């Protein structure tokens, strides 16, 4: 696939944490993503009370939006700062607890119980820890994953999906020789190859 000079690019966990610390989060959408509103029916498919997964969730406002509709939201993010800002900015009370299966990981959960955010590497998660999901909102995850880790990422995502799961994926299209990423360019042919 023609992803230019990006295939060997690696962004470390420390670099992501630094982006949050410095407030260098141009990828965060204050008012939610218009594509989720546009394709919400595709994600929900007439169903209510879904379990919806937000990979690399940051402090996505859509998590509260979907929880307010009666869905159960689970996210994962390496930046504890991002997760705490999510709860603070929405005035949501929450509590923290360790995740026994993952060394050093924490789960921040709304006291209402319908939003659970894991602070750890996404690769530490498994369906035995977080369960399976009826829907996935992948707005900035696949395009943020290091190109060499895409297969690992998609393999994990597939294990987290229920049989009739809906997966909404947002990518960006541009010349990968002119921008080093992230967000990384993921050609449609590669998406088809990864997800089958």
Automatic annotation (TrEMBL):
It catalyses: S-adenosyl-L-methionine + a thiopurine = S-adenosyl-L-homocysteine + a thiopurine S-methylether. Its EC number is 2.1.1.67. One of its GO terms (biological process) is methylation. It is an enzyme of class 2 (transferase). The keyword Methyltransferase applies. It comes from Indicator maculatus (spotted honeyguide). This is thiopurine S-methyltransferase. Its main location: cytoplasm. Belongs to the class I-like SAM-binding methyltransferase superfamily. TPMT family. Pfam families: TPMT. It is found in: Cytoplasm. It comes from the Eukaryota. SUPFAM superfamilies: S-adenosyl-L-methionine-dependent methyltransferases. Keywords: Cytoplasm, Methyltransferase, S-adenosyl-L-methionine, Transferase. One of its GO terms (cellular component) is cytoplasm. S-adenosyl-L-methionine binds at residues 16-27, 56, 77, 121-122, 139. GO terms for molecular function: thiopurine S-methyltransferase activity. PROSITE patterns: SAM_MT_TPMT.
